[in-house]
Amino acid sequence: MTRSRISHLVDPDDDDPMLSAINLVDVFLVAIVILIAGSVLRDRMRAEADLPLDWDEDFTLVTEPGTPDMQIVVKRGESIERFEATGSSTRGTGVAAGTAYRMRDGSLVYVPSTGSD
Fold this sequence. Notes:
two-stranded antiparallel ribbon; alpha+beta; 2 domains; about 120 residues
């Protein structure tokens, strides 16, 4: 390019370094406004969808409780476990360890078995 074409693109008074700093401030202000607007919109969308705002928390979800098709989903940290009901009641092979009595004041008293039962 010739010297005359360059002189039209660059004004000799534009050598102030503060002009570029002011332009950077404008760019950062626009970026901050975009980030704030995105955060507000994300939280509003989650609230409208009735979802928990913090998925990092542990939770337990029970679907169709009390039915043979019941499922339990447990999230602990990064792991998610799913338990499904088999439709039959659970039975164990243990022995009685003692007896618990509820007193009139509402307290519980546990009496261990002697082992000769």
